[in-house]
Amino acid sequence: MAGLVCYRPGHRSRLLFCLHRYQRRKGEQASFTWRDYRDFLVLAHHELDTPIVLIWDSTGHTCAEMTAFIEAKSSWYASSGSRPTRRI
Asked: Each residue of 11-43: b (16+ CB within 10 Å) or e?
């Protein structure tokens, strides 16, 4: 499961989530790929239509492709300025 908790002043909070169903088939991906996360962020951007502050639980797991995607779409993201939050 991947999820985004969304807050905007003066609006109701929202929870966006995406489930990955693993059927244990040969060659099937057991977890989310970077493309799944990318597609989820694209969906969230279109749904919310506002800059997003990303807070990752661990930035060590991001791959080069995901980092390149986020840098290419830097106008979609805003920095919170707090130390634990990393704009990536």
From this structure: eeeeeeeeeeeeeeeeeeeeeeebeebeebbee
Q: Where are the beta strands (DSSP E) in the chain?
A: 2-6, 14-18
For the chain, how many structural domains are there in total? 1
Retrieve residue 81's tokens: 């300025």
Does any domain span residue 88? no
CA pair distance 18, 33, nearest whole angstrom: 12
86 lies in a domain? no
- Predicted TM-score (pTM) of the model is 0.69
* pLDDT, one tens digit for every residue, the chain (88 residues): 888 888 888 989 999 988 877 777 787 777 788 888 889 889 988 888 888 887 766 655 568 888 788 788 878 877 544 433 444 3
| Cross-strand pairs, 77 | 52
Cβ contacts of 66 within 8 Å, gap of 6 or more:
34, 37, 38
